[in-house]
Specification:
- With 165 residues, the chain is mainly beta.
- It folds into two domains: 88 residues, Nucleic acid-binding proteins (OB fold (Dihydrolipoamide Acetyltransferase, E2P)); 49 residues.
- 14% of the residues lie in helices and 39% in strands.
- The chain contains two helices and ten strands.
- Strands 1-3-4-6-5 form a five-stranded mixed beta barrel. The protein has a four-stranded antiparallel β-sheet with strand order 7-8-9-10.
- A hairpin with a 2-residue loop joins strand 7 and strand 8.
- The chain is elongated, with a radius of gyration of 17 Å.
Length: 165
């Protein structure tokens, strides 16, 4: 889908499950943006989908953790206490989520560290993936996450990812 020249294109991860919008044929979601590896540059951008077909697709096919390319128009606040959001016209899936599909209420806790996805399972295990799809490692001690990241980065710098997809 082509869009006007003033459209905004952002890449990010679906921050949580999409929700129906104010009308039944619309959808809302938040996309987690990371411009680079610096956590200071991270942002969460609210998105609104008004196209009924695209809204249906978002609500029924997209899952938390999907990496998306979202195209739309940025709506700036009209008042100091107003909200900013992206009016979405197109969504491309760059990578589907790495999270397991759970139907029960035991939902894992998810955190992003730049290009890494950390999933803290309800059983006490913490899994770490790189955005390339490589599983970096797993631990039962979340304090070891930075050690796993450093070890992975040393392996990739030497040309050996050692990860699994």
């Amino acid at each position: 889908m082509t869009s006007p020249d003033n459209a905004v294109v952002v890449d990010g991860f679906l921050d949580e499950e999409p929700m129906p919008g104010e009308r039944d044929d619309t959808a809302r979601f938040r996309i987690h943006l990371t411009a680079d590896g610096d956590r200071v540059d991270e942002a969460v951008l609210p998105c609104v989908v008004a196209n009924p077909e695209l809204a249906h697709s978002v609500l029924n096919e997209r899952k938390r953790g999907d990496q998306l390319r979202v195209t739309g128009h940025l709506q700036l606040p009209q008042a100091p206490d107003g909200a900013m959001w992206l009016e979405v016209h197109a969504i491309d899936v760059l990578h589907p989520t790495l999270l397991p599909d759970t139907d029960d209420e035991a939902t894992p806790f998810i955190e992003r560290y730049a290009s890494y996805l950390v999933v803290c399972d309800t059983d006490g295990l913490t899994y770490l993936w790189h955005e390339t799809g490589d599983q970096v490692g797993a631990t039962d001690d979340p304090a070891e996450i930075s050690d796993l990241i450093h070890a992975y980065e040393r392996r990739t710098a030497s040309g050996d990812t050692g990860g699994t997809t």
